[in-house]
Amino acid sequence: MGSVRSAGFCLENSLPFRGHDESEKSLYKGIFLSVLKLISVNNPDIGKYTLGKAKKNNKLTAPSIQKEIVDCYAKEVTKMICEEIKDDVFGLLVDESSDVSLKEQMAVVVRYVDKVGVLKENLTGVAHVRNTYSLTLKEAIVSLLADNHLSIDQIRGQGDDGASNMRGEFNGLKALILKDNPSAHYIHCFAHQLQLVIVAVAKKHDGVKEFYETLGMVVNTVGASCKRKDMMLEAKKESGK
Questions:
Q1: What is the per-residue pLDDT across 42-86, written as a single tens digit (0 to 9) for each?
Q2: What is d(CA 67, CA 32) in angstroms, rounded to the nearest whole number?
């Protein structure tokens, strides 16, 4: 119970779990263990079975145990999101990229309107995919939705970053979903569209190209020095803007 409460506190406040040194002599063992110690001090019953009171293989503080607790919280949150949607329709936002361990990960976000008419966007899961082929991505999406009692038939819109494997007219993820559900209208990411417009204009207009090159140099030059940041802030205050 103490480990669950400690993990819940870290998740609720978006805090890191681990510390750089979690040994017995460490003064700062990380937020998870610090909160667990505080809970144990104020609750003798929990203190009997955690940290120094329990056997080393039964403290419920190992990283693997922390991960299992986090997974349980994630499943409960996802369950609440999907229960809010139930049989209603929703939009699907998908993006994939490789993580630091060089594994392809696909993030799936649902956009829907709740019972009081508020538009919401919530992450429903991050799925590991073997490759970035459109068929593989579709199979992962179908599996993820099925696990949460949702269906492709409920999709009324889909959006992504516009990559060829996503928006291909015949074999892209967009096309595969539209074959199963013609109502899943495709919308290209507006932020990506804006980026493409800027790139296209910069290639044909020397003034625009020079502006963004200068802007990039200013950002890099100022961002690399605390003194330059202070100078910019002072100049902004003096200008009154």
A1: 777 776 666 666 666 667 778 888 889 999 998 899 899 988 998
A2: 12
The per-residue DSSP string of 102-127 comes to S-EEEEEEEEEE-TTS-EEEEEEEEE
**Between vectors from CA 106 to CA 182 and to CA 189, what angle results, nearest 5°?**
55
Same domain, 171 and 119: yes
Q: Which domain holds residue 201?
A: 193-239
- CATH assignment of the domain containing 175: 3.30.420.40
**What confidence tens digit (pLDDT) does each residue in 153-168 have?**
999 988 876 666 666 5
- What the block records as the tokens of 67 is 């991960």
Task: Determine the number of helices (DSSP H) and then strands (DSSP E) in the chain.
Answer: 10, 5
Instruction: Look up residue 107 and give its two tokens.
Output: 């993030």
Q: Which residue type occupies 126?
A: V
Cβ–Cβ contacts within 10 Å for residue 2, how many?
22
End-to-end, the C-alpha distance of the chain in Å comes to 52
Left, alpha or beta for 118 (phi > 0: left; psi -120 to 50: alpha)?
beta
State pTM to two decimals: 0.66
* Contacts with 178 (C-beta within 8 Å, 6 or more apart), sequence order: 184, 186
From the number of C-beta atoms within 10 Å of its C-beta (0-12, 13-18, 19+), residue 64 rates as exposed
